[in-house]
């Protein structure tokens, strides 16, 4: 994705935890109690949220709304796709791409949210032709740790194709979870992904950012 | 014979020796996809030595669905003896991106993109 306006806007506005030079390096800050941490992986905040966006949409929802009626994940994905996709050329292909990307993110965020007190925060920002999709949810400690490891492995992997087919082959022996959503996005779509894992006082937050060029469809 | 799976339909079409997918298939997890896996397993051998999986009218398939289809293809590869064709559309993004993955799983697959 060559059109990300990183160089223009990043040098003077970098977040302390940003790590654009090495997208797979992990930064950990231990704060207060030993269990508290903030871990940033991959292309997180390559366009910082403090930079004014041309498009700016917030959505907050309770995971139970999606879990109780699963089609709402797809409905929301189609809405986001239409909102930012149908003003462009090749809008059908573009909307299908945005919907597919967003759907994987919202399915993950709702499926793995804590059952009670959960909340999913969605922030959509448009910078010229770059759509920044940010989704945050609160999850269990087990999923938090497992997902952190999974995302880190994906973003450090030098052979995603190989890992994808290896994962599928292993699924044929034990087809429980899918586990290939983010992997498929990284492998097949021209996107950049960053993640922040933030644990504090027993609350475990996962924030995923995806950057997608609307000109890449 | 047609299976309704969420907002999608999976139809056995004897005239074209194919299993046709249409609508939007975004079921919640692998367990919900068992019905689709069972349908493919039950009807995949209907036409003896050839089968077309036609996705042209399927607007969306989430990663659990892609995993389900991939596992069916891996099983066909393991059993051998089936000439498998996968049909898709370049106008549908997920098909444009992901159907070629099926051929990488089993290079014997004939991939037809319209």
Distance between the termini of chain A: 11 Å
| Assembly category | heterodimer
Number of helices of chain B: 3
* Average predicted confidence as pLDDT of chain A: 84
Radius of gyration of chain A (Å): 17 Å
The CATH architecture of chain B can be named as 2-Layer Sandwich
Elements of chain A, N to C (H/E)? HEEEHHHEEHHHEE
Calculate Rg of chain B over CA atoms: 13 Å
Features:
heterodimer, A: 217 residues, alpha+beta, Heat Shock Protein 90, globular, disordered N terminus, B: 114 residues, alpha/beta, Transcription Regulator spoIIAA, six-stranded mixed beta sheet, 3 helices, 35% helix
What does this structure look like?
The complex is a heterodimer of chains A (217) and B (114). In chain A, helix 3 packs antiparallel against helix 4 (91-111). In chain A, strand 6 (191-200) and strand 7 form a beta hairpin. Chain A is built from 7 helices and 7 strands, in the order H-E-E-E-H-H-H-E-E-H-H-H-E-E. Chain A has helices spanning 6-9, 63-67, 71-85, 91-111, 141-156, 160-171, 181-188, and strands at residues 27-30, 37-42, 55-61, 120-127, 130-139, 191-200, 203-213. Mean pLDDT of chain A is 84; it is low at 1-25 and 29-33. Helices cover 37% and strands 26% of the residues of chain A. Chain A has 217 residues and is of the alpha+beta class. Chain B is built from 3 helices and 6 strands, in the order βββαβαβαβ. Chain B has a 6-stranded mixed beta sheet with strand order 1-2-3-4-5-6, with helices on one face. Chain B starts with a strand and ends with a strand. Chain A binds chain B through residues 70-71, 73-74, 92-94, 96-97, 99-100, 103-104, 107, 111, 161, 164-165, 168-169, 171-172, 175-178, 180-181, 184, 188-189, 217, and chain B through 6-7, 24, 26-30, 59-60, 62-64, 66-68, 70-71, 74-75, 91-94, 96-98, 101, 104-105.
